[in-house]
Amino acid sequence: MGVYDIVARIDAEKHARRQPHLAAESMDPPADRAAVMRRARAYLDGIPPAIEGQSGDAHTFRVCCKLARGFTLDDGEALALLGPWNAACHPPWTERELLAKLDTARRNGVEPIGGRLQTPAPDPPRGGDSEPDFDEVPPIGEALTDAPALRAFTLPELEAHVFDYRRPLLLRGDAVLMREGYLAEIYGLRGIGKTWFTQTIALIASSDEGSALGFHTEEPVRVLHIDGEMAGEELKDRYTDLREKLGLKSTKNLTILAADWQDGFLPRLDTAPGRHAVEPFVEGADLIILDNRSTLFDPDGEKDPTAWQPAQDWLLSLRRRRKAVLIVHHSNRQGGARGHSKPEDVMNMLIKLTRPDGYTADQGARFLVEFDKTRGCHGMSVAPFTASLHTDGWHLEGVAEDDSVSRKLRDYLHLAHQAGDRPKSANAAITKARVGRNAGLAAWADLRRAGDLREHPDGGYFVG
After folding, report:
1. How far is CA 334 from CA 42, 188, 369, in A?
2. Residue 41 class from Cβ within 10 Å (0-12 exposed, 13-18 middle, 19+ buried)?
3. Element (DSSP H or E) covering residue 420
4. CA 20 to 30 Å from 263, out of 21, 49, 78, 211?
5. 121 vs 278, which has greater pLDDT?
6. In the chain, which segments carry CATH 1.10.10?
7. For 365-414, how does the pLDDT look when each residue is reduced to its tens digit (9 = 90+)?
């Protein structure tokens, strides 16, 4: 007999001593199955769905224990009731998985057989209560039989395995900064311009034209921006002003969800009610921007790593669903991200915003952008740069990229001319050349002044 069998036996004996009725494991199913089904349905109506990353496996096991043992339902009866409940689970269980859990619940569960039918009163809905009680927890050794099988590769298997392609969502220069499922964080001092910077990324990622600060995307991305900080009208005004400065069209690819617009409080996203509330919007997004950590998650998570764990579990579940996440956070007085470093461990990218030398308050949104952490990115695309927001959009300072921009624009115009697909405007050329809008317009003007930019008789521009 193994150690787990011994522990399970001791645990079961303790449980039997505390609740003697568990020893009677046999009971004839009640004749009035319709009444039993009504009782079981009433119970299930009060149980929240199972969510991956939030102990969903154990939660589903407990539900199956109640149905298969407590209400004595057979597989057909249980599956009939589990159908609507399972549809709300994320992700839903397959029928095969539910049947396996029902079987495991009958064999290993400690819920009394027919225990839910011993009293004439109907079982009241339990609302959001998903905390396990003693009856629902299987003995330690037996619980392991329901644990998910883990997957591992030998090195040759890993080298031969082909993982699903993660689509690029955000690029800067030639570097892919974010792909599907990537996690990133932007942090900086209060009032430095984090929201302006983040909204710029949201607009560029969701647009099918243009770029800013060197950021661009290969194709429009569905962006969800969840804001827990700003007043609704201020959020609207900033987005409208910034979109016009960047010369972008309004797009339905960008959805904004603000706490200020809700009738009640927006639940914290590290709680089940909060995640359930935003899930319909999360489901349709490729990139989720969370602004900011202190308003959308438990503030104790900055001091206590265990308090941050529910948030990190959710973020990792989004990664498995190929949802990219960009979190906005504050920095501390020393310049690092505020709080402990646990959240940074799983991040693919960390971007730090600081005041440049000689900054004065009348300069507004002007900051130094530094890439503190990047996985697989290097070179000029992730080199530090200073950005400042003006009436005509973003300006880059102290970045030796004019020659690069001009060369890229020239190369594109030459190739487009050879292919007979000449751009009809400066914006079209800048978009196709994948260069920053402001730097691209400057390079376009230089080409025109030098007499190198020409208009073809058949339409469009080329360099000659």
Report:
1. 55, 11, 16
2. middle
3. none
4. 49
5. 278
6. 404-463
7. 999 999 988 888 877 788 889 999 998 889 988 654 445 677 788 888 88
Largest CA distance in the chain: 95
Angle at 406 between CA 400 and CA 411, to 5 degrees: 135
Residue 191 · residue 358 · CB < 8 Å: no
Residue 163 CA to residue 100 CA, distance in Å, equals: 28
AA letter at 445: A
- Would you call 130 helix, strand, or coil by DSSP? coil
Q: What is the pLDDT of residue 21?
A: 38
Task: Return the amino acid letter for 15.
Answer: H
* Dist. CA 38–CA 33, nearest whole Å: 9
CA gap 131, 136 in Å, rounded? 10
Give yes or no for a contact between 136 and 111, defined as CB atoms under 8 angstroms apart. yes
pLDDT band for position 58 (cuts 50, 70, 90): confident
In this structure, are residues 337 and 301 in contact, taking their beta carbons and an 8 Å threshold? Answer: no
Which CATH number does 168-398 carry?
3.40.50.300
H helix count then E strand count, the chain:
16, 14
Locate 247 and state its tokens.
């010369």
φ/ψ of residue 165, rounded to 5: -70, 130
- For residue 96, give the H/E element and its range: helix 95-108
Long-range contacts of 422-430 (CB under 8 A, 24+ apart): 422/456, 422/458, 422/459, 422/460, 422/461, 422/462, 423/460, 423/461, 424/459, 424/460, 424/461, 427/209, 427/210, 427/247, 429/461, 430/210, 430/211
**Tokens for 150?**
């883990």
Does position 140 have pLDDT exceeding 70, yes or no? no
Across-strand partners of 212?
Answer: 215
- Which residues partner with 379 through β-bridges? none
d(CA 151, CA 326): 28
* CATH 3.40.50.300 domain extents, the chain: 168-398
Give the burial class of 96: count Cβ atoms within 10 A of its Cβ; 0-12 exposed, 13-18 middle, 19 or more buried.
exposed
Preceding amide of 343 cis, omega within 30: no
Is the predicted pLDDT of residue 249 greater than 50, yes or no? yes
Determine the pLDDT at residue 167: 92
Residues forming beta bridges with residue 387, ordered by sequence position: 367, 396
71 against 19, higher pLDDT:
71
| Residue 280 structure tokens | 């319909």
Written out in words, the top-level CATH class of the domain with range 404-463 is mainly alpha
Place of tokens 């930019």: 453
